[in-house]
Design brief:
- The chain folds into 2 domains: 86 residues; 171 residues, no CATH class.
- The protein has 342 residues and is mainly α.
- The strands form 3 sheets. It has a two-stranded antiparallel sheet with strand order 1-2.
- α9 packs across α14.
- The termini are far apart.
- It is built from 15 helices and 6 strands.
- β4 and β5 form a beta hairpin.
- Helix content is 56%, strand content 5%.
Length: 342
């Protein structure tokens, strides 16, 4: 699926690169009153993947007739969205620390605001009752939105045909629907393992954590013996799995080298090869045969049959924490109903 906005316009309209350039507004150069038009050469560069300015991305989306929205993205990954003053009240990040952007890739996929919201709700519901956790093991709406968008980009990168709305997945594409369910479940397992088992002061931790959704998807694909929707591009799929395998192997080698340097054992009984290199030799995963009526518990039980010892320990930890949280909430509700807590 092509998510380049220039190529999208060329494919869906009768316009050529010169005509696209002529539709964009001339801009004044910095320090000059003279307006400069966009050239065909610039359009060509953007079509090849060169960085596209946000204002031009908006114009191109408007030419294509696609819904768009403006976002704020931090210039520095390690700066939180808010700072705290002496009164512990949040202060918005100053203007010089942020940049206004728009992501045309996302809007090419969803086309409308309604489809966008449907995707957010769909992924949130598939994750439920668990939540996506950021690198600080926290849940917030901004990070979830970024995560949801990246999920669709990963599917496209793997050669899947991603529909504009998830409704068609739920109604007629059982293979992709159940793949989503297994994928989201797998992401939560890997996130819990990564946050609880790996030293976070290691320079490799952020890169590995951010790659967990890709690793989880590749694991689910391999676990299904490549039983994916018919129109999936086999070359893209193979390249995606091979790339993720390289990422996993590099992470494994880096952590073991780091462990050897410190001459300590950080990882205990956890096996990187079992958790990050997900092979199911001689096993059959029923991902393409699961029906749309399969419950979340059945999906999880089906997954659990193939978990390694280390992964089962991780999953038990998640389940025990959820059970404890449920008991605490029940006690709080009981105390509230009895009037002991106001």
């Amino acid at each position: 699926m092509n998510t380049n906005i220039v190529k999208y316009i060329l494919e869906t309209t009768n316009m050529n690169q010169t005509e696209i350039a002529n539709k964009l507004k001339p801009k004044k150069r910095k320090g000059s009153d003279k307006e400069t038009k966009v050239t065909q050469a610039s359009i060509s560069q953007w079509s090849r993947g060169d960085k596209l300015p946000s204002d031009r991305a908006i114009e191109l989306l408007q030419i294509a007739g696609i819904y768009w929205e403006l976002e704020y993205v931090q210039d520095y990954d390690n700066i939180s969205d808010y700072r705290e003053n002496s009164l512990d009240e949040p202060i918005p990040t100053p203007e010089w620390m942020r940049d206004t952007v728009v992501d045309p890739r996302w809007h090419i996929v969803v086309k409308t605001e309604q489809n966008q919201n449907d995707w957010y709700n769909f992924i949130d519901n598939v994750l439920s009752p668990k939540k996506f956790k950021n690198i600080q093991s926290e849940s917030n709406d901004n990070d979830f939105v970024k995560f949801a968008r990246e999920c669709l980009f990963h599917l496209i990168e793997a050669g899947f045909i991603v529909p504009e709305s998830p409704e068609s997945i739920k109604s007629s594409n059982s293979i992709l629907f159940n793949l989503f369910r297994k994928w989201m479940h797998r992401i939560t397992v890997l996130q819990y393992w990564c946050a609880s088992s790996l030293p976070q002061d290691n320079y490799n931790f952020p890169r590995l954590y951010l790659n967990l959704p890709k690793i989880a998807l590749a694991q689910c694909i391999v676990g299904s013996n490549y039983q994916v929707p018919e129109k999936t591009d086999p070359l893209d799929l193979r390249n995606f799995v091979e790339e993720v395998s390289r990422i996993s192997k590099t992470s494994i080698d880096s952590y073991y080298a780091w462990e050897a340097f410190h001459m300590e054992s950080f990882f205990g009984e956890d096996s990187f090869n079992e958790i990050l290199i997900y092979s199911k030799d001689g096993t059959n995963d029923n991902i393409s045969q699961s029906s749309l009526t399969t419950s979340s518990d059945e999906i999880q039980k089906d997954d659990d049959k193939y978990l390694s010892y280390s992964e089962k320990k991780i999953l038990n930890g998640i389940q025990n924490n959820e059970k404890l949280l449920k008991e605490i909430l029940e006690k709080l509700n009981k105390l509230t109903n009895n009037g002991e807590i106001k």
